[in-house]
Amino acid sequence: MLNELIEKRKKILAESEQHKERRNELNALASKFARERNALNTKTREFVDEAQKNKDLRDESNRSVQSLKEERNALNEQANVLFEEIEDFKKEHGNLKNRGIKELQKQIEHLEFRQQTEVISTDKERELIDKIKQMKSEVRDQESELEQNKDMRTKLNDAREFRKGASDIHAKVTELAELAQKYHDQMVENYRSADKSRESADEAHKSFVEAQESADAEHKFFLACQKELRDYDKVIGGLRKKTRKTKVTKEQKAVRKEAERIFTSFRGGEKLTTDDLLLLQRSKLV
Where is the region Disordered (predicted)? Predict the structure, then answer.
């Protein structure tokens, strides 16, 4: 029975070691997933912080755009007032056949925009350029005629300055609007990267939880084996103690019997050897 219990204990011990080894492997795997998750969460926060920075820069640029637009519109309005006064002057002096400078400037700007943005044939582009030149010449002619009048010359110069200032500001508006769009696009890209990083972090966390739960299960199995080993140790220890006690009792009986034989011989007149004497002392017969 004792040998059978010892063999069973060996199996439980081997099983315990397997659970311990598997638990350690799973804990190491869980730690790996935890490190990956933490690194990804850090990366996510960095992307979100970067997105916020780009959002702030975008909003700042948009505020500047709005402020400059108001300034540009004010200058255009001042120029328009002067051009209206110039047009009224022309009408009063019989120049009704001529198109107004203000209207010509709008048409020139429209045609120049078409030339820069539309895909047209060489002949069409040449025709467009000629038309622009013709209109600009007409503007110069009208301006030359108006400049003969001192008051109109002053208003015309002021209107030009207002229009030039508005044009310069519009260039800044365009530049800032493009910059705001750049910041916006970068912000969107940052948020997309943050979403991807967050998804990866969630996957790593899921793997971490699964590995940790499996490691916990293996640890429970390990503890159960350890408890079973302690139970076996108690039973085996008891049996061994009992076996040793039985063996000692048998030995003591054998010694007692031999001592009684020697003692009987001694009483019969036989001499005792040193070993005989020691044996009698052990059996407490002398």
Answer: 44-71
User: What tens digit of pLDDT does each residue of 22-34 get?
Assistant: 999 999 999 999 9
Classify 68 as helix, strand or coil: helix
DSSP 97: S
Length of the chain: 286
Please spell the DSSP secondary structure of 99-166, one letter per residue: PPHHHHHHHHHHHHHHHHHS---HHHHHHHHHHHHHHHHHHHHHHHHHTTSHHHHHHHHHHHHHHHHH
Segments making up each domain of the chain, as ranges: 38-201
Q: What's the rounded Cα separation, in Å, for the pair 223 and 218? A: 9
- CB within 8 A of 112, min separation 6: which ones? 132
Q: Which helix (H) or strand (E) holds 54?
A: helix 2-92
Share of the chain above pLDDT 90, in %: 45
- Cα 65 to Cα 76, 108, 134, 198: the distances in Å are 16, 25, 34, 34
The token pair that represents 278 in the structure block: 């020691």
Q: What is the dihedral of CA 128, 133, 134, 135, to 10 degrees?
A: 90
- Lookup: tokens for 247: 């063996």
The tens digit of pLDDT for each residue in 76-117 reads 899 989 988 887 877 776 554 455 676 777 787 777 777 667
Q: What is the pLDDT of residue 247?
A: 56
Token output for 26 = 């799973």
Q: Quickly state the pLDDT bin for 71 (edges 50, 70, 90).
A: very high
